[in-house]
Amino acid sequence: MNLESLTIAEARRALDSKEYSALELTNAYLDAIAKKDGDIHAYLEVWEKEARTEAKAADEAIARNDIQPLTGIPLAMKDNILIEGRTASAASKILENYRASYDATVTTKLKAQKVVFLGRTNMDEFAMGSSTETSAYGVTKNPHDTRRVPGGSSGGSAAAVSGTMALAALGSDTGGSIRQPASLTGIVGMKPTYGAVSRFGLMALASSLDQIGPLTKTVEDARIVFEAIRGHDPKDSTSLPDVTANDTKSRTLGVPWAFLAEGSEPDVLQRFETTLQHLKDKGYKIRDVLLPNLAFSLAVYYIIQPAEASTNLARYDGIRYGLSVRADSIGEVYSKTRALGFGREVRRRILIGTFVLSSGYADAYYRKARAVRELIRTDFEREFESVDAVVMPTTPSPAFTFGAKSDPLAMYAEDIFATPANLAGVPAISVPSGTVMRDGVALPVGFQIIAPHGREETLFAIGEDAESKS
């Protein structure tokens, strides 16, 4: 087996034809992790013993022809998705020793398919970040250039797949946290329609924005993982009813040129235009679209996300679970635990969120942001009447060096093209779009496709055409 080129689809064929066993495949990935991850640090914990046990169970299932699309497939899990009995820390000191007491719904679905769980991957603390630099347990490095970040917050999952240390991985996307690291590491990352995949068992950051999705090598693999984890869940009040996918071939793409001109670095925009030309050569029509409120999406996101985060993270108080610092009063327990357990970026966003929700400021900030969010959603709905998808670069620049975005505002600006899809609740995917040169190194960039609500099949159809370029 060649891990560099191996895909889920190819591994499925090889496993079913007995070219190698799930245990042999799992051992190959465990060997790759042992060899490479000391430098990359994609994983916070590798479950070697459990992975081999799961691989043997998968081999037994294959032997009796009890085979599903992901049976025996080695997969990594972001550290904020629960697996019963295993540590889940969201890369935070405040949950350093927390063991999950139940499975996330996506975990239950994957277990039913007899997936092999390789380990839990590093991430920005509580998914707050775009570089995996805010993890309490050290940074993850980009496999293409270890001087650079892999993106975030699902940087560990992206680095594991890009560095051939997992065949696929799950991440969570609140404002681009799957698509942005996928772009920076040269793989495929997908954010489903909000509610298409259950959030039950995902540690909440911003409940109206979070969505679990796959990171894979190909669009076909992303489809396979998505189909395995999608579906209505009565445990999640925001879960959508199961809807039959509309498998139509999309041929008209909208480009918000005015929006792109403000944020993209020239060579990144050039790579985007090259992929766009490739799609035109395949028969796609390209038209300019007006999304006038898209320019406000970053500001809206960084009001709504901290507001919801400040509420969701109030549960980490040193009393119920996780870290607890003893003190003379209950108030001191709260303050000392949170001061010691939360990192700088988490504390910053809690403060911002508390401020925009406070009396006298909620109308000026939070409620106004919610109103503009609806305008952004309406902009997309209007344009989707005449185009099948909106396309743009996934990120304004390639992977940056560690410490280069120490100014929080500079870091937040990296999410400029990723946040609109989360605010509108629509599905989006990032596919590799070639490379640009930085300091003598070819660094990957991504081509982002945003489709109407519930039209994941549109993403896959366009995505497969986009990735087919030579």
Describe this structure in words.
By secondary structure, this protein is α/β, with parallel strands linked by helices. It is built from 16 helices and 11 strands. An 11-stranded mixed beta sheet has the order 1-3-2-4-6-5-10-11-9-7-8, sandwiched between helices. The chain is globular. It starts with 7 loop residues before the first helix and ends with a helix. The mean pLDDT is 95.
Morphology call: globular
Task: Report the CATH C-level class of the largest domain.
Answer: Alpha Beta
Please identify which CATH superfamily of the largest domain we are dealing with.
Amidase signature (AS) domain
Q: Based on helices, strands and strand pairing, what is the structural class? A: alpha/beta
Q: In which range does the helix fraction lie? A: 25-40%
Question: The CATH topology of the largest domain is what?
Answer: Amidase signature (AS) enzymes
Spatial separation of the terminal alpha carbons? 23 Å
Number of domains: 3
Instruction: List the secondary-structure elements in sequence, H or E.
Output: HHEHEHEHEHEEHEHHEHHHHEHHEEH
Number of helices: 16
Which range does the strand content fall in? 5-15%
